Amino acid sequence: MYIAIKAIYENGQIILQEPPPTAEKTDVIVMFVKDETARIDSSTKGVKIGSLAGKGYQIPDDFNQPLTDLSEYI
């Protein structure tokens, strides 16, 4: 089983950003992210609130009503 934790490599050392899952001696695999753009930037995920305002998109009035297709399960 593999468990990934975030770390930074700097000046020949690997600095862990999270606690390791074990304190015992164990084998590890080190992977280097080659492209900086491949990292996930949490500030750009998803749609920003209000970004669709004035563009013709509307939420139907019955949006929060139960779906009739699922009525037998509710």
What does this protein look like?
This protein is largely without helices or strands. The protein has a domain of 35 residues. 0% of the residues lie in helices and 11% in strands. The protein has no helices and two strands. The protein has a two-stranded antiparallel ribbon with strand order 1-2. A hairpin with a 2-residue loop joins strand 1 and strand 2. The radius of gyration is 23 Å and the shape is elongated. This is DUF2281 domain-containing protein. It comes from Thioflexithrix psekupsensis.
Which range does the strand content fall in? 5-15%
Q: Share of helix among residues?
A: under 10%
Class based on secondary structure composition and strand pairing: little secondary structure
Count of separate DSSP helical elements = 0
- State mean pLDDT (0 to 100 scale): 80
Secondary-structure element sequence?
EE
Tell me the distance between the termini: 38 Å
Biggest beta sheet summary: 2 strands, antiparallel
Kindly summarize this structure in a few lines.
With 74 residues, this protein is low in regular secondary structure. Helices cover 0% and strands 11% of the residues.
